[in-house]
Amino acid sequence: MEKITIKLLAKSLNVSIATVSKSFTGSHEVSEATRKRVLDLAKELDFVPNAYAGSLRGHKSKTIAVLIPEVADSFFSTALNGIEEVTLEKGYQTLICLTHEKLEKEQALLKELANGRVDGVIMSVSSETNSFDHINAFIKKLPIVFFDRVCAELKTACITTNDFECGYIATRHLIEAGCKRIALLSISNALSIISERSKGFQKAIDEYGLDTGACSIINCSQQANVNYQLISELMSGPDRPDGIVATVEKLTTEIYMACADLGVNIPNQVKVICFSNQSSAGILNPSLTTITQPAFEMGKAAAKALLRGLKNKELDLTDESTVIPSVLTVRNSTVRKK
């Protein structure tokens, strides 16, 4: 099927390309009757004009899209601040697109953005993303830089933190605090960050000789009520864990609520550590021990990498990949009994 373009619309309607273009912008130079003919045909052929095309010069929109799963997570909101500090300084606008952890939404957004609406994309993949054909197709048109949740198989810049090491450090911290039955709470089998954190968890369990049957990886969901029920069941069992590693920030609330409702004391009966950037970690009761990710710095690094790639088309973006270490912040949720 022939690609639908403004030129094809103009030919079909026997009008000029300028007339079609002006019809989409609502120009007073085009009669209402002609404008209606243009819009009706466009609708019939499922043609969506590039709203940014008229403002492009030299194929530059001066806009960067940022695809992230959500903004409620403090990691992503902080990373956005880092991205915008760089892009605004360089005269670029930031278009924020939310996938809501849905692969289908991610695919649709990339397809829409590929029409030249943006110059490039900074992206953290959804928890459902287990195939990368849609991303690979986009990269053939415009550059992408990954941060946090990456697709290492694709040849571009990946801005990450030391997830494997942090999974190990978090688990080792619980072991050294006296824990022997440790559960790692996961949200996806596909995400690179969860995979690496799980491997670090397993290394610590093996290295310290803990009973692997008493230490497990629990797959949670994206729904808070489901996670609350799952954690409640986990903490109600006779062999409940005495240590929990939460791989994402959103699980914190459900852990604290389930333990409070069941009368399970943190940290005396279960110690909790979470990968989290939330500023409220220090005022929770008890205050939450965290693996704090360098979100702002990762956002800045991702933006700088993409802008360097846009400036120099010959640049190999894989050379821009970097790992920025996270930090263990010990608080009361993992304090050892005296």
UniProtKB/TrEMBL annotation:
SMART domains: HTH_LACI (SM00354)
Record has Mitochondrion as a keyword: no
The keyword Transcription is assigned to this record: yes
Pfam (any one): Peripla_BP_1
Domain HTH lacI-type: 4-58
Gene3D superfamilies: 3.40.50.2300, lambda repressor-like DNA-binding domains (1.10.260.40)
Keyword field: DNA-binding, Transcription, Transcription regulation
InterPro entries membership: HTH_LacI, Lambda_DNA-bd_dom_sf, Peripla_BP/Lac1_sug-bd_dom, Peripla_BP_I
Full protein name: LacI family transcriptional regulator
UniProt organism field: Mucilaginibacter roseus
